[in-house]
Amino acid sequence: MPTFVASRLSGNDNSVFPDRLEIDDDNGDITYFKGTVVGYRQSFIARNRIASVRLASGLFFADVIIESTGGMEIRARGFTKGDARQIITLLT
What we know:
Strand content: over 45%
CATH topology: PH-domain like
Distance between the termini: 16 Å
Structural class: mainly beta
Number of strands: 7
Shape: globular
Largest sheet: 4 strands, antiparallel
Helix content: 10-25%
Order of helices and strands: EEEEEEEH
CATH class: Mainly Beta
Number of domains: 1
């Protein structure tokens, strides 16, 4: 299962609690984790519910925006540009 962890240098609360995306090898389902002071928040989008995947690139880091057919949006922030491109490739 490919797992991508945002850079701690990217800001966006990632220095303490970096964003994490896991993509299931078998079916491409996405699980997003955002750490908090106690535990983490978790969001899930099934592969067949992905409506769009976009990349928002800054000077050094990139955000991956995944939207579901039900209107849910995951904005995973602060990945290296290489990791962000790899995520996009796996999901499209």
